[in-house]
Inverse folding.
């Protein structure tokens, strides 16, 4: 009888512990409210929000985040690259921090969820730990990276991968990256002070919307990211000869725009000629002088190639370049490729971290799958200096970088709960 009572007590105790663990969940309504509150910074008359990095709206939103962190009792600093870093003390000061976060800047005419879900979920994790009076051994760092959309500026600086050449890149606000860093409270003259070395962090975890339709299509709750694709950008310049559109015979033209149009088709054909999941895109084109009655003499297009392998990216680029030279010769124009300083190397996530993400999803009763990230993220650069993991939640209709971008409150909370429980698990397992 006594043995039965002991066994029953042990079962009840185990059940209670499991129940208590599952009860550590974020406040879904509070998380959604923060998403809506953040969307107020930069809201336009049409109800949509514009908040490109370095804009007044970006600065106001960052100030709000800083104040929120301070209200949580966090120690807040802005490093020389403009990264907002909120630190919550652990019980063991000798431990390296477990860091997590994302970004709040947006592409022009973007949505309210890309980057913002991960950032607001990070704040919600801290709020939940405060509510429950839960102390971690490791210090916790919430990092809000600046200008992710314009070249993952903050995370590149932190990983030591931001070159001074990048300071010249100008975004749609009209500010260069260098000017933007100063505008956000950073200091370009001391940019190397932002660098973290390997071992400075115990781990880094980023929650993000999927920005695709796989999770929704397969009716899954969580994506466990196994790797983030690398990407390279180029400006491609076609130089012909501007001339009168009415008096120049068709066979005597040096039409830069016609050559560029053939190039755009070629990018699609060449990229598809390789086996694999690589992608090649021309997303921007500018013709000069831009008059209806003048044959374009100069055209600049963009070129972007992405894949999980740097070798594949280079092979695709060389094939596109060779095809472009053929087009240029046949069109009697010149062509030049100018690499842009927005390169991101492919990054694989850390097995220890992604296994804890998987375990947390299982314990919470959430469905999941392992998947690559076709988009670049701050986690990509953080993987250079820390064991890194990434959590995806569904994007409605696979829509992103659009005002129609949407992730439900339930899906956001699912991701935040996986983030919270992953951090707690890592806190127990990591040195």
């Amino acid at each position: 009888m006594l043995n039965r009572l002991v066994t029953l007590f042990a079962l009840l105790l185990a059940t209670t512990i499991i129940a208590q663990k599952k009860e550590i969940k974020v406040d879904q309504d509070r998380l959604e409210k923060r998403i809506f509150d953040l969307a107020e910074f930069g809201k336009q008359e049409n109800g949509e929000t514009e908040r490109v990095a370095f804009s007044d709206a970006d600065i106001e939103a960052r100030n709000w985040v800083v104040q929120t962190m301070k209200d949580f009792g966090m120690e807040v600093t802005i490093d020389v690259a403009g990264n907002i870093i909120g630190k919550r003390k652990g019980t063991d000061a000798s431990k390296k921090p477990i860091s997590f976060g994302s970004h709040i800047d947006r592409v022009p005419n973007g949505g309210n969820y890309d980057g913002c879900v991960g950032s607001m979920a990070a704040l919600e994790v801290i709020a939940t730990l405060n509510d429950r009076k839960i102390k971690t051994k490791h210090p916790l760092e919430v990092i809000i990276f600046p200008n992710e959309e314009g070249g993952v500026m903050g995370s590149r600086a932190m990983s030591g991968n931001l070159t001074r050449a990048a300071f010249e890149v100008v975004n749609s606000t009209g500010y260069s990256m260098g000017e933007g860093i100063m505008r956000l409270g950073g200091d370009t003259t001391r940019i190397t002070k932002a660098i973290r070395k390997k071992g400075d962090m115990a781990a880094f975890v980023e929650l993000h919307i999927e920005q695709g339709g796989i999770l929704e299509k397969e009716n899954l709750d969580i994506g466990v990211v196994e790797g983030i694709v690398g990407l390279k950008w180029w400006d491609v310049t076609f130089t012909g000869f501007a001339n009168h559109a009415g008096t120049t015979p068709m066979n005597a033209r040096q039409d830069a725009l016609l050559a560029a149009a053939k190039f755009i088709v070629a990018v699609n054909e060449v990229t598809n000629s390789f086996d694999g999941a690589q992608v090649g895109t021309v997303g921007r084109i500018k013709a000069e002088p831009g008059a209806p009655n003048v044959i374009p003499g100069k055209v600049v297009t963009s070129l972007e190639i992405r894949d999980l392998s740097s070798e594949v990216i280079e092979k695709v680029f060389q094939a596109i370049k060779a095809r472009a030279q053929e087009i240029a010769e046949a069109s009697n124009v010149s062509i030049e490729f100018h690499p842009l300083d927005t390169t991101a190397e492919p990054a694989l996530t850390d097995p220890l971290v992604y296994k804890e993400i998987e375990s947390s999803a299982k314990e919470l009763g959430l469905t999941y799958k392992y998947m690559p990230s076709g988009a670049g993220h701050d986690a990509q650069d953080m993987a250079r200096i820390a064991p890194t993991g990434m959590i995806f939640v569904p994007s409605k209709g696979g829509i992103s970088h659009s005002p129609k971008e949407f992730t439900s409150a339930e899906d956001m909370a699912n991701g935040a709960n996986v983030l919270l429980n992953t951090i707690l698990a890592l806190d127990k397992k990591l040195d």
In short: DSSP finds twelve helices and 16 strands in the chain. The mean pLDDT is 94. The radius of gyration is 24 Å.
